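FAQ: What does the model actually see?

It sees only this:
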Amino acid sequence: MSAGGSRPFVIIRLAEAADDFFIEELAKKAGLTVQASAERERECALLYVAEQRERPVGFFLAWKILDELELVDIAVSSEARRQGVALSLLTWLVEFARRESCLFIHLEVRAANLAAQGLYGALGFQQVGRRAHYYRDGEDALLFRCCLREPI
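And it is asked to produce this:
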C-alpha cells in the first residue's frame, strides 16, 4: 500500500518474532507498553508492522472480538512521521475490519493529541465519549468509534 505522492512506499505486514524488539522499543518511546511476543500468541490480537525501504517504521496492535475491533496501540517512528505511515496502518485496519464484517472499530486517544484525532476523523471515526483523568498524568482519554455497517 502506498501512502501516495512522492512519499516512500509503505508495506503493511504481519509482525514476526524478529519485529518484537522494534515494536517494544517504539512503544516505549511512545509511552506505551506492548509485549509483542505475548500479543502474537493472543488469538484475538492483530499485530502488524509498517515498512518503508525494507525497514520497520511503525506498528499497530488491535484486538478482534466477535464483530468488533479495538485499536489498542499505534505508533510511528519519529523519522517516518508525516509520511502517511499512520494513515496506511489505519486504512489497512479499516479495510481488514470491513472484510471481516466487523460492525465497529473502537479506540481511545489523548485529549491533547489533535493530530491523531484529525486523522481518525478523516477516516470516519467519531468521538463518542470521554474518560476523565484516564491516563497516569491525569489527561483525559477521548473515545472514538468508526461504524462500518449497521447492526442486523
